[in-house]
UniProtKB/TrEMBL annotation, chains A, B, C, D:
CDD domains: AGPR_1_C (cd23934), AGPR_1_N (cd17895). The keyword Transferase does not apply. This is N-acetyl-gamma-glutamyl-phosphate reductase. Catalyzes the NADPH-dependent reduction of N-acetyl-5-glutamyl phosphate to yield N-acetyl-L-glutamate 5-semialdehyde. The gene is argC. It comes from Photobacterium kishitanii. GO terms for cellular component: cytoplasm.
């Protein structure tokens, strides 16, 4: 049994993680932490998330002494802000913990990336170099050996799971950048009071045109330029990505199907991708589940792929849990289905 | 032409008022004001409410000198917080303006009411005594003669329009308090960033059990005890009230129909109530409109009434406009249909 | 291991049942059936309910030979229309199956009830007499011994779980009927194409005033007259009931709390009710879960209770599973949390 | 005063048209028609659309004798199915009526188009040749002179209003097809009971990949190949289109702004497009209004435009009214703002 702590447990992702850890047969949920000065410290997690009442009633503890917390933990889940993860991860790592970071702090090994897209200078380049990128279906070997796993976020997960088989097999025309349009539920913005998240202000729209930090993350890990346009939708959870791309000369629909099936038609235990063939992904089919649904159609030189995930699960918490399972030799979807 | 200013113009009600005043043939929208230190001062109203672009692009002005503002205004609409209305109304009144207050500051003439339910001591009892309660369908004589009109809010409007004909005609069993359950859209809480209004936190529920300030307002103006339970719904606009009451001995369904039709079956110009007979009120039929829909059914000694309004219109802005129209001798639904 | 078949598996409740049976350690999902002439026969269940892909891909079978189906089944779940359950239950019962009927066909043992509220004459009074009413928290002794369990539906479950402790302890003033207002998600109407369920036509409103068949079911099993007003809400799943009642003379808030805690403060394994004290139930806290949340407040002679459930789970499928667990000596929330 | 009749008045577009005609100072709403065998014949329109109660209570008449109806009408609005418009338009045209057809029956003058995309052979090629395409901001000269105006639908209106200035000015790289992703509210599918429109089945998803009939309509009228992917959204009204394109070599952001402003920065009376500059269009800003909001941003060789309309208004009814106003010399937004 592995002692597991969640740092930043008060948010939506933290709540999902706490549920999963609770029902995992090989993990013990040994501590829920919030920042030392949080007003939520001392409250049961179920006070903030009523659906957890009777399921996870553990109190939120103030993270006052990281070393002591680290000493008692085997596995640490960081559901914290990017800067916070950047600052505290190494203490847990130095104590020997496995660290699964759900922030962006260790995802991209590229000069100036953090300065440009996150507004801070990265101080831990050695850990950045050694972090495994936790796209579970693609990096299981690296995940199995790493001490630090940088779990990708919601938009990059949906986008990469759909595009990566095509890019790896070199089926796309590299002259024309794939266009990724994605719509996310409001929970993607986190649990906080802002005008943007205010119920009456939420109205379907695009944002972050050409400038969203997930665009370089997707391009970096795909090794392929893309145009990525995120949208805010009028729903709580889920992401739907619609991806339009031009195929390389001579590539057929059958070629596309072959590489997608080769990537994802394994036994269900080994991954969380469901292939829909020429059907399109439906948001509600994945909300509340750990799966990424992918559909596709080809006409002439063009392909359209649709991919849907629950942004808080496959886009955050359940993907972190897949990584824990891979890292520790458990069946990959343990505690997830 | 009457110069009309809106104080507190940046909120949802302010936006609706500005549209109505703009299209009113006898009114000039001569100023939109926010508090002197508001960060919104200087912005066009349509920057905050995109749907007004090209319709009301006037800038929001800081209310720095009330007397000067008052001197140039014939009509003042206060879409301000209760305390603010309480504090500034008299300056406008002293300058001779007609004041239509959409806050609760002048609605209830009862000792201790403001201390108990609004948390401040009322300083202007003479104006409180002279204010007309702006329930347009019932108080037109008083409205026509008053300088200060206290426009009732959303829950009290729906509740009273349904119950008042029955109470006035003494059709209810006074031993058993009518039970009013009402569900309001989130816009009723105003335009601001709070956890309660946060998109992901909104979840249908009851609040303010036994303690909501609209309960004594309803009871006071109906002259009838009631049990009022407000609910927050997962929608932006509208209120649906379902009212269950016991009829006085011997009262029949026909008696009920007779008093409701007597109250509201006038020519459409004279009021904004639509009677549905034994159909039930539907929220979406009134959202975006100035109407209150009322349906009812009787079985044995019991009656159930349903009443629906748009909380920002008949529950605020359009009712204020009805009051302006009544006060100034215009056709009652001018600028509203 | 018990062979379990679901009749009427294509609907929303059938889909939920199939998921639960699949993950139940002591049950085998041995057959999913639809009516013999259904166009869905032959399709995998996951074709109709995409979220089940990879989880329940069994085909829907036409129910052509009930006796053969019965012979191979230990447990039968009827998620069928009332008339269908009425007609086919006995064949399964005669074959010795345990039958859990989610329709209304065996819920109320009262003369003329089926003629008046369901429009058919009941032909199986002996089974009606012997059926246990599957309100899991209250009838476990009867459920444990019955061969036929009539699982209560959504509105009656929420209403009775809140009111029954008070009625049993005789805390209510019987002269004044409790007023139950409840709002249900659209899934309560089943999976079918109707104008009423059409996305653009759904608009919060009350329906079935004084005439809904759940009113007599609630009154019968509570042994207490009630006024029940159902509403259709603009959401897919969940029910929120708000109940207003008058207390018997001398009853205090502490008395109320005592009887509710006595009824439901057991170890969590024994039931699916969560007490919220003076907080109010929130719809989203129970959607997707097997729990009924109950809150309450007392003022003077009046009490307001709020109760929330997922209409498809505690209001249908998970309550049926609780009954299966009780009947077969499994831990009560097996496969549910 | 012009006698105006609406054929197919019972649907969502018909309801909007009836409201507009009612409040138009130069039009008389002289008849609302449904098909001869419609079950709705005889009912007041407000029975089907409760929000019209007290506003349009005219009865729906069965269209039994088209010639007689035509003889009494100056203006005919066809809110009918494509085939029906195709079949009945000529009778109204022969009688000398102005016909504004909101269906697709006369929009595209291209061989085989109707056979391929609408499934019928077009029988009225002379009228097809003479019909004006009612994209109000672009075809006012043609509209002014035509007897038959084919009003474009929802997706083509949003898409063309955004792209047409760029195509006309030849600012796009023609080698790379613009990618149009659009999300529509459910009302776009019309007022009918289908599983697809059923409240619980609606789930954000793409449909009609590569095959939607609006793709060739957009390409034809833009004279530019496009990839168009429609989506169904979880809301009642509105369309948001996000368009990604590659600019021709050397084209700058200033060039783009110049052509958009040249197209649409006129006095507000002349059109219904609002330019947002580098802001993005927000769905709720246009729902309930006649406007199309357009925003855009350029980075390097790429441009992203966002366009939002109310699918029932600028995408149907209000655009038809703009056409009526243009055709008859009225101010273009009469009855619309």
């Amino acid at each position: 049994m592995l002692n597991t702590v969640i740092i930043g447990a008060s948010g939506y992702t933290g709540a999902e993680l706490s549920k999963m850890v609770s029902r995992h047969p090989q993990l013990i949920l040994s501590g829920l932490y919030v920042s030392a000065n949080s007003l939520d410290a001392g409250k049961p997690l179920s006070d903030l998330h009523g659906q957890l009442k009777g399921i996870v009633d553990l109190p939120l503890l103030p993270l006052t002494d990281i070393k002591t917390t680290a000493a008692a933990a085997d596995i640490v889940l960081l559901a914290t802000a990017h800067e916070v993860s950047h600052d505290i991860a190494t203490t847990f790592l130095d104590a020997g913990c496995q660290v699964f970071d759900l922030s962006g702090a260790f995802r991209v090994k590229a000069d100036d990336f953090y300065q440009q897209y996150y507004g801070f200078e990265h101080q831990h380049s050695e850990w950045l170099d050694n972090a495994a990128y936790g796209l579970a279906e693609w990096n299981d070997d690296a995940i199995r050996q790493a001490q630090l796993i940088a779990v990708p976020g919601c938009y990059p997960t949906a986008s990469q799971l759909a595009l990566k088989p095509l890019v790896v097999a070199d089926l796309l025309d590299r002259q024309q950048w794939p266009v990724i349009n994605a719509v996310s539920g409001v929970s993607g913005a986190g649990r906080k009071a802002t005008m943007t998240n205010s119920f009456c202000e939420v109205s379907l729209h695009a944002y972050g045109l050409f400038t969203h930090r997930h665009q370089p993350e997707i391009s970096h890990h795909l090794n392929c330029d893309v145009i990525f346009t995120p949208h805010l939708g009028n729903f709580k959870r889920g992401i739907l990505a619609t991806i339009t791309a031009k195929l390389a000369s001579g590539v057929t629909a059958d070629d596309v199907t072959a590489v997608l099936e080769s990537a994802y038609l394994k036994t269900s235990d080994q991954h969380a991708v469901r292939l829909l063939g020429n059907k399109t992904a439906q948001l509600d089919d994945v909300v509340g589940s750990c799966f990424c649904d992918i559909g596709w159609q080809v006409q002439g030189e063009h392909i359209i792929l649709t991919a849907a995930i629950d942004n808080l699960l496959k886009g955050a918490a359940s993907q972190a849990m897949q990584c824990i399972n891979i890292r520790n030799g458990f069946s990959q979807l343990t505690a997830l289905v």
